[in-house]
Amino acid sequence: MNLHSPLGSHSTHEEFQVDNAIVSIRIPTQGIRESWLAKGKALYYDTARRTADAIELAAEHTRKLYPSLSNDTAIPSARSLGLELRGVWVDPTEGTVSFDIYDPSDTLPSSGDDMMRDDVYSVGAKLAADGTLHVLTENCG
Question: Which pLDDT belongs to residue 63?
Answer without folding.
Answer: 79
